[in-house]
Amino acid sequence: MPQLNSRRDFLKTSTLAAAGVAMPYWFSTGRSLAEEAARSPNERLTIGCIGTGDRWKQDPYSRMKNYGDVVALCDVDQHHLQEAHKRVQDDQRKMGKTPQIELSEDYRKVLDRKDINTIVIVTPDHWHSKIAIEAMQAGKDVYCEKPLTLTIHEGKQIIKVLEQTGAVFQVGTQQRSEMSQRFLQAIALVRAGRIGQVKKMTCDIGGVGDSGPIPVASVPEGLNWEKWLGQAPLVDFRYKDNGSRWGLSRCHYEFRWWYEYSGGKMTDWGAHHVDIAQWAIEQNGPGQGPVSVEPVFAKHAVPFEDGNPTEADRYNVANSFDVKVVFENGVEMHIVSESPDKNGILFEGTEGRFHVSRGAIKGAPVEELKNNPLPEDALEKVYGGPIPANHQENFVNCIKTRQKPVSDVWTHHKAMTTCHLANIAIRLDQKLEWDPKSEQVTNSLRGRAMQQREQRKGYEIDVQV
Known about the structure:
By secondary structure, the protein is an alpha/beta fold. The chain folds into 2 domains: 7-177 and 390-408, NAD(P)-binding Rossmann-like Domain (Rossmann fold, 3-Layer(aba) Sandwich), CATH 3.40.50.720; 179-370 and 377-383 and 410-449, 2-Layer Sandwich (Dihydrodipicolinate Reductase, domain 2). It is built from 17 helices and 19 strands. The strands form 4 sheets. A 9-stranded mixed sheet has the order 17-16-15-7-14-13-10-18-19. Helix 8 packs antiparallel against helix 16 (409-428) and helix 12 crosses helix 16 (409-428). It starts with 6 loop residues before the first helix and ends in a 16-residue tail after the last helix. Mean pLDDT is 91; it is low at 1-30.
């Protein structure tokens, strides 16, 4: 089967799909389409990687290299870039190839290459949306790590461009397809009515410690700090050695704990557990989602004024919290930093309860499966077809068939909307009323304004929605 390298190919495939000819992504003659890509040189993807830090070395690259050849690497940290270059070179030589890999700190050079059909984005969160949008506009299919967006508005922009271009876009929420299938089993239990009518869900996503004051420091050699900041305000680099690998800083792994670049645990682990919870109760489709988001309590290490932190020398995301989310169907969800059951999701219904985490799924409804098992195809019905070996395999299958990946942008936007609303609510210390159909805060002008953020000149996302 020829590779789909252009929008012309996509339109042809779309025409076949409209005529009922296209098969679902899991259909093949003996092997999956991703396996064909792994075996045949003519079926391999041509990949450009933007962002090459620690997370890139894990799932995105370590698995995507089985299905395609990386021909371009981009990072604003030269240490990361050179380390990634050596790894890709070594891997390609082991495969008997002669590596020809372009290196750059400007992602636009990667997007400009006509031979690249697939972009892998593993940057800090505040860079995801702009790069992803421009990649789709350049005719590429996209894999991007979670959380996909910094704001609710960015999610709307990505969806508009996705629908305009017909790109295949997979979000890196591996909990939808891996983790020993426990989360799929949890959804199947809910859908099968094993706890009766769902009344309450508790998503324990953990909290963040107080960093204490972090002093201004020199920018590390090889890091383009201005480009790393991108759309975020231009501020001093800060760093303090605390004996850990990354220390305390505004950069690299630690960016998660600053609202300027991310959303703390709310968008880090929330991107996983809130997503699964909303998937289970079917509140991740058009017009669905919460109707109110209310902070029960939240603790920050810095004071806030009008929703913004007033101190700049320490982590500013919430340290601990309990946010009450109510859906139109009456289900109540609490997003908490700590619970008796620890990290995971507790589902409670009129006829029982159970808890699921990456380590286990437990509770009476789970124990009852020994005598009353779920139908054999229960997990596949949740997933949408036979479950692949890994998240990237699903992405590659979908590139070949133009089907929607299991971690699609539309449902991810719904989960992230809930997480972003939760952060807005705790920053304002205010209950927010939300219209899931118009996607607007209806009771707070400031809350509505915080659905998007001002972007630094030169780094704006130019998409009107």
